[in-house]
Amino acid sequence: MTGAATTALVEKNIADHPEGQETHTPEEQPREQDQQQQQQQEEEEEEESDEEENGPPKKKSWRFWAVFPALCVTTFLSALDTSILSTALPTIALDLHIGELYMWITNSGMAGGANDARLIIAGRTVQGIGGGGINTLVDIVICDLVPLRQRGKYVALMAAVWAVGTVVGPVLGGAFAQYVSWRWVFYINLPLCAASLVLLMLFLRVGHPHAPDTAYAWSSWQALVPLLLGLVGLGLFYLHQTSRFCREPSIPRRLFRSATATCALWIAFLQSVLLYWVGYFLPVYFQALRRASATKSGLYVLPITAAIAPLGIVTGILIAITGKYRAFHFLGFACLTAATGLFSLLDEHSPARDWAGFQVLFGAGSGMIFSSTLPPIQATLPESDVATATATWAFMRSFGCIWGIAIPTTIFNARVQALLGGVSDAALRARLADGGAYALASEDLVGQLGDAPRLMAEVLAVYRESLRWVWWIAIPFGGVGLLLCFPIKQLELSEELETEFGLQEGREGREGREGEANGEANKTENRST
Length: 529
Description:
Structural class: mainly alpha
Helix content: over 70%
Number of domains: 2
Largest sheet: none
Distance between the termini: 39 Å
CATH topology of the largest domain: Growth Hormone, Chain: A
Strand content: under 5%
Radius of gyration: 32 Å
Low-confidence stretches: 1-24, 47-56, 98-115, 210-214, 506-529
CATH architecture of the largest domain: Up-down Bundle
CATH superfamily of the largest domain: MFS general substrate transporter like domains
């Protein structure tokens, strides 16, 4: 090669490979191109992933919108079952002559065909077991189908359905008791149960990952001992659940390690206590003091139940938009506490604007608390504990229902017994004693005393003062709930749904996309090799 040719070749090589850039042999160039293509593909996948995470929420599939109405029907059934007795219970107690046993009917659910107290209590027991399962499972299913930040909207919609059930319940209960038969208070559940069961069997098909093995058989002592100890009492149940011998407790202690989750669970409990406290004794006020029929008393409690729905929905939407929930706790319990105090001012002469306005205030506070207590509980826990936390939240609400009826009932009966000395008629005193005042809280009693105004005034005074004590003692419960709002922290609510129990349709699509991505990655790896 001549000197000129050599110089030209060197200049061409320098032009093709500027200073600072490596030179490659012909064999290395295809491998470098494959690596660059792989890197570019990975960057594009990351960008697409970021767009999916930061983009708008994904649209729900048709199967979701088929399942959601079924859950609404189920929730409506559960709400109707809890509220329909409130106006019909005095009639049932009077018809079956069960006296002070009426408080057991409210907590127990075969009842339509009962002819004595024992059968109706047994029937309500079975019905109550099913109702408790409904409340828990509906909340868990929603958590499996909806991301944390969006759950507030759907929980609020469920609260609205619950409110409709509680609105319709007292009216239906009073109408059945007055015009048809109180037995239809229980028979009405049958068509609703059938409709809900059909919808859920057709559309609720969720993913269910199977573990490689079962930890304990149902016949083993590890599974049976917790169930049996639960019958012994809440104290022994708690001791067992917190002992080292129970590896999978129903309510793990880790749920209560966070002050936020613990306080949120307890304010859910107190909200339920006050809701049933007021829901079961406002009808007594209307029927005994205002001489309203069972049907009218159901209409008169509409303000409290109607206010729960819109405030619950608005609260859920605002939580979904802003991710903030703490302010609703304070505002909600402030309304509850104020309303319970205002109820003590009511008497037989109170205008409608007072008792209706106080109910709206109470319903607004209850709706805000109902929609805002679950997000902080779930935000403190990993997704694997969401079902357990949701079940615990539902348990606390159901547990509050028991005390929300038992405590005011005890107060009411005790005050009636203490005030019966002011009733001059001995026969009437005997009828009002030992729980009889609740069963006689109706327009019929007042009508019988129309010819004896002095005796009627004495009886009304007993009801008025007894109810006043019921409302006074409710105030500290609201105050404790307000104090429990302070330790709750404002946490970030995730907008991503990470669960193994979502609808199968979405899960299959997700698995298909993952399979395609893995296939492309394998092809790229083979090309590189």
